[in-house]
Amino acid sequence: MNQRTISIRLDGHKLTIEQVAAIARKFEQIELTPEAVEKIRKSRSMVEQMVQNQQVVYGITTGFGKFSDVVIPQEDVSQLQENLIMSHACGMGDPYPTEVVRAMMALRINALAKGYSGIREETINLLIEMCNRGVHPIIPQQGSLGASGDLAPLSHMVLVMLGKGEAEVNGTRMPGKAALESAGLSPIRLEAKEGLALINGTQAMTALLCLAVADAHALIENADVIAAMTVEALHGIPKAFDPQLHLVRAHPGQQESARKLLAHLAGSERTTAQGELRVQDAYSLRCVPQVHGATRDAWEYVRAAVTRECNSVTDNPILFAETGDVISGGNFHGQPMALAADFLAIAIAELANISERRTERLVNPQLSGLPGFLTEKGGLHSGFMITQYAAASIVSENKVLCHPASVDSIPSSANQEDHVSMGTTAARKLRTVIANSMKVLAIEYLAAAQAIEFGKGKLGIGTEKAYAKLREVIPPLSEDREMHVDMAKAAELLASGCLVPEI
């Protein structure tokens, strides 16, 4: 991998979701600020004094969880940390994608950079170099309860730092030691507190949420312009998006979605006035600002919560160099992220719910006034008939996935850890819901563009751009063809970002 210029400096305080996504997906290079290095050194000095003075401090000179009352002799403190990593690496299932692993690494580095964890400078530097040089630990997706942090997934990350486990380098999976050597790096031996400092945190669920928040933003923007295309295809009534209507209901997301819809439809010759064809549109058209807007507001809440978590200390115990205090608490508990993930999954699923209803209106001749299933040779050709089936199936799957993980808890560690968040499960489900919703909106995108073929008149400013972008890769449907190919291409287009970036 070619060396790249450092572009993101981590200090534990200012990391953004956009920066996490850039590190994860664009392989942006990272380093610590001088201020962060100084804080790390002060925190480490505290740990070394505790060990030297044989103080009884959780996770430094004691066992973990239910074994917190077991005092560890000084000569075994280093072995304790290595044992912790090996014993806690209990993940199962398919490995996380590389982008999730990189996000986890960046987030853990940023948390350690705050200087409350007691890690050595050389240990955090190894993790930084692994990220910068493309050494990506193989981390199974299952196994985290989301309290005591993401112990299992983060342990798999740390195994590679010890020359154990497995990692991927340039697309090749290999033993951890070989992966380090291929990048010119060497394994380390953990010292007091370091194993716990590396794995006791919420970085797996937060990594998933960072990428989900980034993807959800584009999905929300695309949902508005695709809905506007459907409004045009069905000669809908944009008066329902009038700003004075939305100003009297003070939800900012609703007002923003209404503004976007009008901007996308500006200049359109395909829409109608109240009473021209009908007095009111169906809810799936008329209530787009209210439904999409509620999702926008949910997204804003989750974005703020995740940004806070990106710059938080989430391990245990926490060292305060200024006061000399060492406090055992519960900052590793993932409940804030668990609730955020479940909330966003429900909100995103609603974009798919209402999208599928608009697709039904497009393909159903009794509701649209258009040729049945958007084909001129109905009977010989089925047109868009089964695309709506697919959308309905995926929407139904989302409803199952939207049962909140955060309402569940199973006690662990002999009931010492008797309430857990299941936040990582919630975040994993959220990513699936976003991917599913993208597919449902891709189907509406195709159907709306096909329906537009049967009308006349100029499209709106935004809808014309979205229509043209689709037609660059997918031609109109003149006769039956393998629809799954078109559906996949449309979904890829949505996954690539906002159809109309600025409006």
From TrEMBL:
Keyword Flavoprotein tagged: no
Biological process according to GO: L-histidine catabolic process to glutamate and formamide; L-histidine catabolic process to glutamate and formate
EC number from the UniProt entry: 4.3.1.3
Gene Ontology terms, MF aspect: histidine ammonia-lyase activity
Cross-link 5-imidazolinone (Ala-Gly): where in chain: A147-G149
Residues the record lists as 2,3-didehydroalanine (Ser) modifications: S148
Pathway: Amino-acid degradation; L-histidine degradation into L-glutamate; N-formimidoyl-L-glutamate from L-histidine: step 1/3
Localization (cell): Cytoplasm
Catalytic activity: L-histidine = trans-urocanate + NH4(+)
Pfam families (alphabetical): Lyase_aromatic (PF00221)
UniProt keyword terms in alphabetical order: Cytoplasm, Histidine metabolism, Lyase
Recorded superkingdom: Bacteria
Keyword flag Lyase: yes
SUPFAM superfamilies, A to Z: L-aspartase-like (SSF48557)
GO cellular component: cytoplasm
PTM annotation, UniProt: Contains an active site 4-methylidene-imidazol-5-one (MIO), which is formed autocatalytically by cyclization and dehydration of residues Ala-Ser-Gly.
Similarity field: Belongs to the PAL/histidase family.
UniProt protein name: Histidine ammonia-lyase
Organism per entry: Brevibacillus borstelensis AK1
Gene (name only): hutH
